[in-house]
Design goal:
heterodimer, A: alpha+beta, Folate-binding fold, four-stranded antiparallel sheet, globular, B: alpha+beta, Ubiquitin-like (UB roll), FAD/NAD(P)-binding domain, seven-stranded mixed sheet, 25 helices, elongated, binds zinc ion
Amino acid sequence: MRITCPFCGERELGEFTYLGDAKPQRPAADAGEDAVYDYVYLRDNIAGLMSEHWYHGGGCRAWLKVTRNTLTHEISAVEPAAGAGAAKVGA
Amino acid sequence: MRGNQANRLTNGGLIDRSAPLNFRFDGKTFSGFKGDTLASALVANGVKLVGRSFKYHRPRGILTAGSEEPNALVELRSGARREPNTKATTAELYEGLEAASQNRWPSLNFDVMAVNQLFAPIFVAGFYYKTFMWPAKFWESIYEPAIRRAAGLGRAAQVPDPDHYDKAWAHCDVVIAGSGPAGLAAALAAGRSGARVILCEEDFVLGGRLLADGGTIDGLPATEWVARALAELTAMPDVRIMTRTTLFGVYDGGTYGAIERVNDHLPVPPEHQVRQRLWRIVAKRCVVAAGAIERPIVFAGNDTPGVMMASAMRSYINRYAATPARRVALFTNNEDGWRTVETALGAGLQIAAVIDARAEVSPAHRSLASKNGFTVLNGSVNGVDGGKNGMRKISVSLTGGARAEVEADGLAVSGGWNPAVGLTSYHRGRPKWRDDIAAFVPDGAPPGVAAAGAANAAFGLGACLREGFEAGAAAARDAGRSGSTGLMPVADDEAFSLTPLWHVTGEGKAFVDQQHDVTASDVELAQREGFQSVEHLKRYTTLGMATDQGKTSNVAGLAIMAAVSGKSIPETGTTIYRPPYVPVAIGAFAGRHRDENFHATRLTPSHHWAAEQGAVFVDTGLWKRAQWYPRAGEKDWLESVTREVKAVRGGVGFCDVSTLGKIDVHGPDAGAFLDRVYINAFSSLAVGKARYGLMLREDGIVYDDGTTSRLAEDHYFLTTTTAKAGLVMQHLEFCRQVLFPDLDVQLTSVSDQWAQFSIAGPKTRDLLREIVDPAEDLSNEGFPFMGAREVKLRGGMKARLFRISFSGEMAFEISVPARYGEALVRNLMIAGKPFGVTPYGTEALGVMRIEKGHVAGPELNGTTTAADLGLGKMMSTKKDFIGRVMAGREALVAPNRQVVVGIKPTDKARRLRSGAHIIPKGETPGPDNDRGYVTSVCFSPVLDQWIGLGLVERGRERIGEIVRAHDPLRGEDYDVELCNSVFYDPDGGRQRG
Ligand SMILES: [Zn+2]
């Protein structure tokens, strides 16, 4: 598999580390235990298009949001994981 | 058996008669020529029997002339280089080659295990599953060893491989698998377009079937055309031709696996060269021109030496000028098989008969028969008479019911052609069935891959060239290359007609999978026993599961399955195709990563110095760390470690702690950031101070710990444990980039930039004053406990000093740029001499941390909370941080959790062992009464006894209680006292002094 890092270009899988579902958002400090529980434990496991967090540890150390088809491994989009924070990577 | 190449033709072939090569097979010496394979040289020498079969030890000969070979497997080379299950049909002959037949004892000619044939009923389909199931204890002692002796292939070398293997990357526009007419045409079109091309050919010469079947291309004889194409391709700077290289896998994102047999054609690789190289090729497009595989027809005795694929017979005669038989019969169900007749006649061989299963045979063939005096029989071969010395005659069941017998010493068989659909069917692709050629053909392909030529069921020479050329041009275009492709090579198309025929019923064993000894009746039995899915059929009968992956057997197996189940072949379907297309040595996948290069090795800045001191090293992750420094006369590690601990506690010692992860945290929000990742506050930490910090995972469990210092208002220096250095960096980057992008903070990994040493003991200041500039105030007032700042060393160099202590002694950690680490150590030794300075290793470090009750890896084990570790009070209630909410869950704050506590045997002479379970006195050991376990132990020189830490239920409430340490693994059970985990200097006076 190859991932095109927005900062480094196309690189092979071995440079990246997989984390998982990128959809859950960390709840605000006062959101309560149920919200945090959902955030920590409830993850989708989709057969198809999935938005995932990947870490380019063998390159620029950016966290990326990768849109991948889990059935075909086809990657349709790669972007920095979060707007402001990630935009500073490589800046 | 005759030697001296009695079966070699005097003329023709692509062998070099001026370069004779001697070789040995089963101890006998033979000769062949350069350009031979081991199989062709054996054919030339009249050797028909080359091995014994897997289960029944039946005599077997050579079936094919390529990498699909199921039978002619040998042990190649000897000693450490012995390579089992090597296909004689692809092993290139070299001077001095040594090969031995497999699975026979004591000799190939007389094999006692051939009695297995008498026990054939027990080796039927599924015998692994239904035989020998009871009694179970017999399996290991009796059945398995017996089966292993009786059934099998070659023997591994049993000693380390002395050769080297490499792994390499290559990038190109178009990679092409196969250099037959389609592959060469594709390479010409793509190369002329300006594409960067890699052409992989598993053979040692280009040409594919052209080498055996000839033909006329662009008015030239095929071999001349191949030479011209090769010259043109070689002249192109961006075309790389890789012979002896098999493209074996298609992976995601346009990555392809290929194995290059760099030096397999030599007895020993030349100095500094590898035997094989594993390539990962990244290509924008791939053209699969892997050709097709001629398929056998299943009939009784079809495994008798002398029965050979028709196309293989043409290969041996035309390419290698070696005749597999004198009197040849042909059994075919298609037009292509007849070429073998022309080839055999051209070589001066007799044709015994042609048995054609088709209803119609063309007038041209009939007149060829009458001209050359052989008969054409309408019917099928249903038996072969012969054995280890080859075949003598065949019996034929004629259309209409009559029988005939034909005397022949060779039988060429052609059941039609199967496109090599392996590469195009990876990624769970399923080929589709085509009735007109009775074969599975590619139905689409992985992204970027296209099949051309015979691999795409275009069997005519003209069609191969056309498809290959168009596929090459399209691939180059898709890769953005737009040069002129020039003229397409042209040839005529041959007619192809076929009547499907898979299995002829008859008396005796009819083999579907010759390598795994799976017969037609095994397939039928499996179907009767309910294994109706092809995936079940495969596993139950092991059909297609041998090293050849069923290249000559799978489709016939499906066809027989379909016939007995009353379904069509496409309804029956295929199993899933998986790489590698040919066997690839594990050594090639390992490459250079073996022995001491299995993984990278990280050396601490003091490593070379420590090695000079005779230090014993321990692997911690990739690091080599000094574990202890033995001295002459010390009888064991314990004596050395105890000396080191005493030297520190009584004087001064130092230890390399550079392996800790080190991260610079910069920015106006650095403090706020640390507040969110640690359970305790860091924004409140004063500049010039250090603080111990604890991180949780978001689920509330402890993740890592370490000391973080504030070197400036907007600059913190964070340390992690050695084990988690990389992971904590990754975690912090996640927090920074994904969770808290609003914070203005930057992280830099500086683990490799700083050499860091702990200097500990009451004489630490005395030693440091020799190293540090006298103007620096190291007094308790000028540099108090948990102080952290930059200092100047004598000579002017800058260093960082941290007044932190892991040992419980008065201690500093000093860090200097990594390249000065060794010099610092050598200076510490010189300056420390008057104070008896003693280097100590990780064992002494561990002893002192246990004496002080500090937690480490065994306690930070992924199940413990801050409170479990006795650090619950650090948890801030004034801020949010990672893990805060989940740490408050009921079970994580339950009063009966196992918490860290000190443990010491009541008998001071007893050795405490980690892993021992804590059982209350008077209770029966077992899961119900298990109250925890011992996590860390050491011999404490201070207390003069073994002590430890443990995780014990309600441990802190039970201090003073006597419990049992129960150790079923070592068969020990003894009394221990639960005690305060801080064994040494509990009020901490020494480290603050
Ligand atoms: Zn990157």
